[in-house]
Amino acid sequence: MTILLIAVAILIGSGVATLVVCGNTRLTTLFGAGGILIGSVVGLMPSVASLLDGKVESFEFPWRIPGGSLHVQIDPLSAFFLIPVLALSALAAVYGSDYLRSYSSTKRIAPHWFFLSIFVASMVLVVVARNAVLFLVAWEVMSICAFFLVTFEHEKREVRVAGWIYLVATHLGAAFLLAMFLLLGRHANSLDFDLFGVAGSLSPAVCGIVFVLALIGFGAKAGFVPMHVWLPEAHPAAPSHVSALMSGVMIKIGIYGILRTMTFLGHPAQWWGPTLVAIGLTGGLLGISLALVQRDLKRALAYSSIENIGLITLALGVGLWGITSGHTIVAVLGLTGGMLHIWNHSLMKGLMFLCSGSVLHGAGSKNLERLGGLLKRMPRTGVTMVVGALAIAAVPPLNGFVSEWLIYMAMLHGGLEFTGVNRIVLLFAVGGLALIGGLALICFVRLIGITLLGEGRCDQARHAHESAGWMTAPLVILALLCVAFAVVPGILVAAISNPIHQVFGLSTDMALPSLTTLGTLNIVVWISIGAVALLLLIMQKRSKLVAGSTWGCGYIAPTPRMQYTGQSFSEFVVSRLFPRSLRPKTSVTIPQGLFPVEASLSAEYNDPLSRSIYRPFFDRWAGRLAQLRWVQQGKIHYYLLYFVVVLLLAFFWLTFRKWVLS
Amino acid sequence: MYQLIDPILVAVLLLNFAALGASQLRTVIHAIALQGVLLGVLVVVAHNEFTIWAVLMACAAITLKGIFIPRLLFHAIREVSIRREVEPIIGFIASLLLGGLGTALAVLFSNTLPIAQEHVGSLIVPAALSTTLTGFLILTTRVKAITQVVGYLVLENGIFIFGMLLVEAMPFLVEIGVLLDLFVAIFVMGIIINRISREFSTVSTRNLSSLKE
Q: Do A634 and B108 touch (CB under 8 A)?
């Protein structure tokens, strides 16, 4: 525990140090990136130890805030989340040191490094806090730091708008969390997590309310539909290493919150599992469908994060369902799959966002319709991006497949062992999961196909350059980890057995038999891929190569504009499969007559929920509240007078209440 | 030493009226400086014994409220050559009457509050409330930026007195009170550096309304 606190101190200290040396860009980067790197590596040691040994260490220090105490603790559940937080932060910091270089001449980067260090430190604190006040303080610091990180390029209007949407969404969520902790605190008579746990005596109704509040409050951070609208706004607006951190680990902290809340509530109720399954399926289907129509690379990845959070929720839901219905094998497989997918998704999504940053850096755009042919120009970014995309699409010899395999196994076991309606519902859910998987495959083939293959669709893409070593090294490390995780699933499942045992009291041993063959299979596939690659390489060496343009097809005057575009690639699925509300709003003028005339096509990619629900709702209320604008007189005396009037009214009411009421 | 609390609080209340009724800025600042010193003494008295912590808090309060901030204010008057008169929106007599009304209300109101047994009958709550109200009155009815600072100080003194109720239970609140003082100090320095006068060529907050929307 002491070592972890030292890591937090290093993170905070390096953040402050960057502000001290803010004049010198080189020193700022050194302190910022170096501090996060060292702090993360130091913090990883106790986390790994705690995860493997199942040790629980705590540290308590009185705090002057009423109800608060500086009570922190590391247990397997915390360690399970600390590891991706620290590992991805270290890689993102290394990546960011180079990514920010192009901004250093026009912007001050010291505040960015400051907020990044504090952001990492606060994520660590959220995960280890064992007191509601400390937790909420760390939670708020995390949210606010993320706001400042997202609004790095605040001179752009859309970035400011994205920042505000994120800020509003996260604070609405925090309000529900406050209510939840107050409710728990009132029943436990303390705001310490240890005493919440004792409250196994909570009535089922209170447990239910707490669970719903947790779903809304933590779900807003995790990106549950319909609270997901901030993700597709904030992720594209933020610098790429920040999006990687937010999508890779910050939204998982929402899942952590839900798991931690479950440890307070004792045995899960009957309806929790099906509720989570429903939330997960909705999120998965909506997320991947919308990812499929996006034109912006990072927006598509943000929607894919919503989908993956949906998969995690779905898996945990199936696990809970298994627990409450007494089918241990279903529970173990579901929970293991869900937890493993948390780790896997941090890797894959971190990798994909860092790759998209590298693409933006090298080709100057993240708009699919302007990219193309980058695999030739940016080989390291391109290859790692292919690995990441295949992993997210759950293609076999990669890690995404392993966790989805476990989820499928859990659901199919459930379909066999459950009875009555439950069985039918679960089998339909398997269909939903398969649909999500298919759409994900189309989505990621589209993303990498349009970005990496073919010819560049604009000049900048045709003259793209590979990013420097500091940016590509983290990509290579993440891609290798994706491969490694797929080869040794058994070891990973053994490693995450402690947190699952801690939260749900189950052993993961039952999940192991289904994985050994999978690991072997993955190794065999990798060896055959290597053999085929070697063979191709040898054949390439022998034969004479003629360079021509991709998809040249013998045209006399081919142009890159003749390629498939991102929109045309997904057009079939979108127009045949999706309901009208999910399609992008398009307006087309089709040329008529014999001779070439002007034609146009424009499409709007707003989120359907914010387009049809949130925007009208907020617009209506903004219109109504505008009538109150006369209150805004612009004179400080009036504002103070409002205070006085309210204060006096409160005085009068409290003083004369007795006479008025009697 | 508990019996000393009430006389001090009476003096604090009288100083409120002095701050409301005085027409010269200099007098007003002297009044709140004296009020600050009295509050510092109050910390020791309320602790009922000489602990090092209490004396330290008292010294901090006296230095900040009684010496440092008043000096800054005088400095501000000289530096920015603010005219020496208070510019009230409503007359001095009306201010005094409202202040008196506020104090009466505060006494009435404090009788209805559920207060711990040892504080019943003490002047702490009425004095705190009436000082807070006086602070608000100064804030709302005076034009100059510097009188806004004075109003804020008086308001904050009211909160400080309220903190005396909790001095044993929650020393934290009292410390936060001292922090608020630091905030005032920075506020005043801001006026000395004097954004208002440079940007808008006047130190009157009336002109801030051009910032509306």
A: no
How far apart are the CA of B2 and the nearest CA of chain A, in angstroms?
26
Residue in chain A lying closest to B145 (CA): A636
| Residue A402 resides in a domain | yes
Residue A484 lies in a domain: yes
Cross-chain Cβ contact B112/A644 below 8 Å: no
How many domains, chain A?
Answer: 2
Report the complex ipTM.
0.76
Instruction: Please tell me the distance from the alpha carbon of residue B50 to that of residue B41, in angstroms, as a whole number.
Output: 11
Q: Are residues A449 and A571 in the same domain?
A: yes
Q: A618 vs A161, A305, A540, A614, A623, CA distance in Å?
A: 14, 26, 60, 6, 8
List pLDDT tens digits, range A544-582.
777 777 666 777 777 777 788 888 888 888 888 888 888
C-alpha to C-alpha distance for B6 and A655, rounded to whole angstroms = 23
Smallest CA–CA distance from A658 into chain B, residue: B112
When pLDDT is cut at 50, 70 and 90, the band that residue A257 belongs to is very high
What is the per-residue pLDDT for A442?
93
Are A354 and A474 a contacting pair, CB within 8 Å?
A: yes
Q: Are residues A520 and A653 in the same domain?
A: no
**Using CB atoms, which residue from A64, A633, A655 is nearest to B172?**
A64
Task: Report whether A112 contacts A152 (CB < 8 A).
Answer: yes
User: pTM above 0.80?
Assistant: yes
Q: How far is B154 from chain A (nearest CA, A)?
A: 14
Question: A502 and A649: one domain?
Answer: no
Q: Cβ A640–B139 below 8 Å, yes or no?
A: yes
State CA B185 to chain mean position distance.
13
Interface of B with A (CB under 8 A): 89, 105-106, 108-109, 112-113, 129, 133, 136-137, 139-141, 148, 170-172, 175, 205-206, 208-213
Domain span at A646? 632-662
Per-residue pLDDT tens over the stretch A630-651: 887 777 778 888 888 888 888 8
pLDDT digits (tens, 9 = 90+) for B202-211: 555 555 565 5
CA A73 to chain CA centroid, nearest Å: 25
Asked whether the beta carbons of residue A641 and residue B140 sit closer than 8 angstroms, the reply is: yes
